[in-house]
Design a protein that fits this description.
The complex is a heterodimer of chains A (178) and B (315).
Chain A: E1 2-7, H1 9-27, E2 33-38, H2 42-57, E3 62-66, E4 97-105, H3 109-119, E5 126-136, E6 147-153, E7 159-164, E8 169-175
Parallel strand pairs in A: 2-3, 2-4, 4-5, 5-6
Antiparallel strand pairs in A: 1-8, 7-8
Chain B: H1 24-41, E1 55-60, H2 66-77, E2 81-86, H3 98-106, E3 112-117, H4 122-129, E4 133-139, H5 145-159, E5 166-170, H6 177-188, E6 192-196, E7 212-214, H7 217-223, E8 226-229, H8 245-252, H9 256-261, E9 267-269, H10 282-285, H11 292-312
Parallel strand pairs in B: 1-2, 1-3, 3-4, 5-6, 5-8, 6-7, 8-9
Helix pairs in contact in B: 1-11, 2-11, 5-6, 5-11
Classes of the chains: A alpha/beta (178), B alpha/beta (315).
């Protein structure tokens, strides 16, 4: 197993700052914007973006998490258990600008399920997708991100892992030796 | 909700035949999943598409209102296709056997069977002979696992935890599948259980299950944190177990005066249907201490969780 770190703490912090600025630049007025982290792993990144946006704008911006377990398309097809994580979405998304945040965009299937889950909560004015890592060339659905931290080219059997503990943020690719 | 963190594990069983077969981890997994379903039931869109390619048959060989409605609603909230069957309007009355009835229904490509049957063990028997996932919705005087799960879930919701709590089950323990399932469930979760009632309605050797026995309702109420009042099953009283309903009510009916006299606040439960004025008086059933309607609400979430977790095991 070969492991290669592609983003370290410093680079991740710069990327988060940049993506938050991009959202701020696009919206300017953030009063009608909501940041929603996709569970389980998009939550920490969404929190980091949310914290930066609140700081930049001096406003209190709506924040929530979304669990799309019951909307997945691999129910009864996956070898791993598919179990839900507790979510919190205690505001109306109707007519809001929603940015959904995830760690890695790979096949696009979890984003598809998240969009379905989101639509059960209301009809946002606009929904955008932010990801820390975009594994292009691996998409199985026509889904593209609006805000990208880093684009990586990987083969299907590579794994991209994100660790987002406050003490040490890092992203690495692990490759199985043939 | 965060304090009940989900651990990623599958259920250890293929069918839900009784609480006896479940592990503590299974029950906790069902609760954690039910928490999520409960939040879905409080949303504007109370439906998820998860079981949309599954068909579930509800076979009720015995009357039921609450359980049947609750299962049906749970199935529909999960987007499953549902077929209902009641023995009174079926070929069972023409002499068809249980396996034949069920196999006929399964040949219509049914994935899961929710069954209530008057014979104890009917669900276990069926699980050995047909190729579908079986959920026991009450088998005679044996078990009623989803009722016990929703009772324990409601206690956990009200008191925060079940570990170390004292629960008394009052009434017709002898004929009650709810009592047996509750005893297994509460003990697995670390609660202490007492049964209380008229001696003729308490099974002999019930102490071997590790429960305390009391024949005095006031003493039992003073001991407990939660009182689960069972219905006097008038339809199963083939022998006279007590002289009259009035005498039973005088000794074992839960009234407001009795509740006020024990000097502490306890939680009152009832699995329904209530015989108002027999095992529980109306003012207690409708009081703030009673969580009877929360039990019904939680029933749908618990049944959704059970169906989801059993369906999730693709074997």
């Amino acid at each position: 197993m070969e492991e290669r770190i592609i983003l370290n703490q410093k680079k991740i912090d710069i990327i988060l700052e940049r993506m938050a600025h991009q959202v701020y630049e696009n919206r300017i007025d953030l009063s009608n914007t909501a940041i929603i982290g996709l569970l389980p792993r998009g939550k920490a990144i969404a929190e980091a973006i949310h914290e930066r946006l609140c700081r930049m704008s001096g406003m209190k911006i709506a924040f929530g998490t979304l669990d799309s377990t019951f909307y997945r398309d691999d129910f009864r097809r996956s070898d791993k258990p598919i179990l839900p994580t507790a979510m919190h979405l205690d505001f109306q998304i109707e007519n809001k600008y929603v940015v959904i945040v995830d760690d890695v965009l790979y096949t696009g299937r979890s984003v598809r399920s998240a969009l379905n889950a989101l639509s059960d909560f209301g009809r946002p004015l606009k929904t955008e997708l932010m990801v820390l890592i975009d594994r292009r060339y691996n998409r199985e659905l026509p889904i593209q991100p609006d805000y990208v931290g880093e684009v990586v080219d990987t083969r299907a059997h590579d794994k991209v892992k994100v660790s987002f503990e406050n003490s040490e943020k890092k992203v690495w690719i692990s490759t199985k030796q043939p | 909700m965060d304090q009940h963190k989900t651990t990623v594990k599958r259920l250890s069983v293929k069918h839900l035949l009784g609480i006896k077969d479940l592990t503590k981890e299974d029950i906790e997994q069902i609760f954690a999943t039910a928490d999520e379903f409960k939040s879905i039931l409080n949303r504007q869109v109370r439906k998820v598409p998860t079981l949309r390619d599954m068909t579930i048959a509800n076979l009720f060989f015995e009357n039921s209102t609450r359980t049947k409605l609750s299962f049906e609603l749970a199935e529909k909230r999960l987007s499953a296709d549902v077929v209902n069957f009641a023995s009174s309007s079926s070929s069972v009355s023409k002499g068809e056997t249980l396996i034949d009835t069920v196999n006929n229904i399964l040949s219509m490509k049914v994935d899961m069977v929710v069954m209530r049957h008057p014979a104890p063990g009917a669900c276990a028997f069926l699980s050995k002979h047909v190729d579908a996932c079986i959920v026991n919705a009450g088998d005679g005087t044996h078990e009623h696992p989803t009722q016990a799960l929703l009772d324990a879930f409601s206690i956990r919701e009200k008191l925060g935890d079940i570990q170390g709590k004292k629960v008394v089950i009052v009434g017709d323990i002898l004929h009650s599948r709810v009592a047996l399932s509750n005893i297994y469930c509460l003990q697995k979760l670390g609660a202490e259980v007492m049964v209380c009632g008229i001696p003729t309605l308490i099974p002999r050797h019930i102490e071997s299950l590790g429960v305390k026995v009391s024949y005095n309702l006031k003493e039992a109420l003073q001991w407990c944190d939660v009182a689960n009042m069972l219905r006097i099953q008038l339809e199963r009283q083939d022998t006279k177990y007590f002289p009259s309903l009035r005498e039973y009510t005088m000794q074992f009916g839960l009234t407001k005066d009795l509740l006020n006299s024990i000097g502490k606040e306890i939680v009152v439960m009832h699995p329904g249907p209530i015989n108002r004025g027999v095992e529980i008086s109306s003012d207690v059933a409708d009081s703030d201490q009673s969580i009877i309607l929360q039990q019904v609400e939680n029933g749908v979430a618990i049944r959704m969780a059970v169906l989801y977790l059993l369906a999730e095991r693709k074997d």
